[in-house]
Every structure is written in C-alpha cells, then in structure tokens.
Write a structure and sequence with these properties.
Layout lengths: L36 H4 L7 H10 L7 E2 L12 H14 L5 E9 L4 E9 L7 E2 L2 E2 L7 H4 L38 H38 L11 H9 L3 E3 H7 L5 H12 L2 H25 L1
Helix pairs in contact: 5-9
Bound molecules: iron/sulfur cluster (SF4) (2 copies).
Length: 297
C-alpha cells in the first residue's frame, strides 16, 4: 500500500558514477539552467490525482495523517533531512519555518510519529539571491528535480511519462524523446539525467522503506494508529500529544540500533539501493535483448 507519494525540487546535473555504460553527452542531457523556479515556488506541487488521494484518505482515514492543509504543504523532508535543515538555519540565524507535515498518531502511547516535515513558506527559506544557502545539506527533494518520482514507484495512478516530471523549462525538449518501454526508459533517464535520476529512484526507495516500516510496526503491534476517525478530533489529539521522529522511534523500539539507523541513512544518502536497482533494470534489459538477438540467429 502506498501511503504517500509526492515530490519535487531543483539541482544542477552532476556526473553519474559507477553505473553501467553512459553515452557521450548529447543535447538530450538534462542541464539545470538555475532559473530558481523550483526553489521559489515550493507549495502546491501535488498533481490532481495525488490531491484527490490526500483529500479522500489523508485526513483521518489511513494511518498516515496530513497535519497541515494541502495548499500549505511544500516538499517533504525526511526527519534526518529536516534536522540538517534546522542545523543550517541555526548557523545562518534564520527561521527555517520547518513544521511536521505528515504523521501517525499512536493510540498505545498517545503520541505522534512524524514521517515528514515541510517548509511552511511559498519560497524556500534557504534561497537567497538565487543561491541555495545550505547546498551541502540539501535534501533528496532538492536533488531530484525535475523528477517528481521515478518509474519504479508503484502507485495506483495510471503511469504516464509526464507524471514523472514537475514543471521545469529545461526539459521540454527532452520529454518527447523518453522511450515508453520501461527498461529502455530507465536506461535513457540514467544516461541523460545522471545523478538527478539516481536521487529520484533513491527517494522513492526511501518512501517504500517508510511505508514498509509503518506496516511492519503495525503488524508487530508496536504501533496502533487511529483510523477512520473524525479529522478535527484527531487533530486535537495530535496537537496535544508529544511528537517523535520516525527514525528516533525505530531506535527507541529497538527495531534498529543507533549505529544501524545511521548506516541506513548513510546508504540512503549515497544512493546505494538506487545504484543497484538501476543497474539491475539496465542489465535485465541487456540480457533480454541479448536473448532476443540470439533467438533470431
Ligand atoms: S526549474 Fe528546472 S531549470 Fe529551473 S532551477 Fe529548477 S531544475 Fe533548474
Ligand atoms: S534547500 Fe536549497 S536546493 Fe533545496 S529548495 Fe531550498 S534553496 Fe532550493
């Protein structure tokens, strides 16, 4: 079950590394022209289908609850990313405006486990004179734009190439060339979007991981969320309850030791699972086309 999928943000292209065979750069390579639009308009990024999903389910029907109105919600930050943003804000002496945006209310302990945070502002609070002031600490969502999600993310929505991307003026000439067949699409996106694509895939893997954690915690009866509860009453409960970040909760409940949790976050940061998933998709394509050629011989 997908409890949430949503995403944006901006970054320049970086050189891909250690992944299979890359073509020479072509005019189809994604180059961020740093127009700043994705950092200066960070609210209202949800597509119509996602909005509908949230309106229907995220206000008390499913375990993961939308804690702020959709129109106020900006891009999602995982708790370890929100901490880095808050450290950056402290160093810069600015108000980051970071607030919890999605969480699960646990009936057992009457507290809220926070899954994602958002910046409560129209423009990113770290954008200054067209520059990112926390470039080294920026989140996945900053590194994956113009993607909104990767082709690996399983959702109930019907898939379209356009749904992969957010509005970015630097991709309009590339989109018509994206292959429709999935393995070829992965190869193309890897070749032409490099690290940006890697981050989109990794972010979706983290989303899947967070969903799996929630399901596992519920199955093990570590977490007992309220569901199908009147939203206003639920928000009253949530606002007067203590909050704990998801990763802190996992350590507190001994699902992971602190060292294991740090290692998991470090692997996420380095795109370890995304490297593997892209490699497998490209190798599968290579083997199936190799078999195809052999069967024609
Ligand atoms: S909208 Fe596109 S071109 Fe503009 S800064 Fe974002 S990624 Fe770069
Ligand atoms: S943190 Fe930096 S890269 Fe991310 S949205 Fe803000 S200004 Fe843009």
């Amino acid at each position: 079950m997908i409890f949430f999928d949503f995403f944006l943000q901006g970054d320049a292209k970086l050189n891909p590394d250690s992944l299979p065979v890359l073509n020479e750069q072509t005019h189809l390579d994604f180059i961020c022209h740093r127009c700043g639009s994705c950092c200066s308009h960070i609210r209202g990024f949800l597509g119509e289908d996602e909005k509908k999903f949230f309106e229907e389910y995220a206000y008390g029907k499913l375990p993961l609850v939308q804690l702020i109105p959709i129109e106020r919600t900006s891009f999602p930050l995982w708790d370890w990313e929100a901490k880095r943003f808050q450290e950056g804000a402290k160093e810069l002496n600015i108000d980051s405006k970071i607030i919890p945006s999605r969480g699960v209310f646990d009936q057992k302990e009457q507290r809220t486990i926070i899954f994602t945070f958002s910046i409560d502002s129209d423009s990113c609070t770290f954008l200054h004179n067209g520059q990112c002031r926390i470039y080294d600490k920026r989140g996945f969502i900053c590194k994956l734009f113009p993607f909104q999600k990767s082709p690996f993310l399983k959702t109930k929505e019907s898939f379209s190439i356009h749904s992969l991307f957010g509005g970015c003026p630097s991709i309009t000439h590339i989109i018509p060339h994206v292959p429709k067949e999935s393995a070829q699409m992965v190869r193309f996106l890897h070749e032409h979007f490099g690290e940006t694509f890697l981050n989109a895939v990794q972010h979706d893997i983290v989303t899947e991981w967070a969903n799996e954690m929630m399901i596992m915690l519920m199955k093990k009866n570590v977490l007992k969320p309220i569901m199908n509860y009147p939203y206003d009453l639920l928000m009253k409960k949530i606002s007067s309850s203590p909050f704990i970040d998801l990763t802190e909760f996992l350590v507190e409940k001994a699902i992971y030791s602190r060292e294991q949790m740090d290692r998991i976050i470090s692997d996420f940061d380095h795109g370890v699972q995304a490297h593997q998933r892209i490699k497998e998709a490209i190798e599968d394509d290579f083997h199936s086309s190799d078999e195809g050629i052999r069967s024609q011989e």
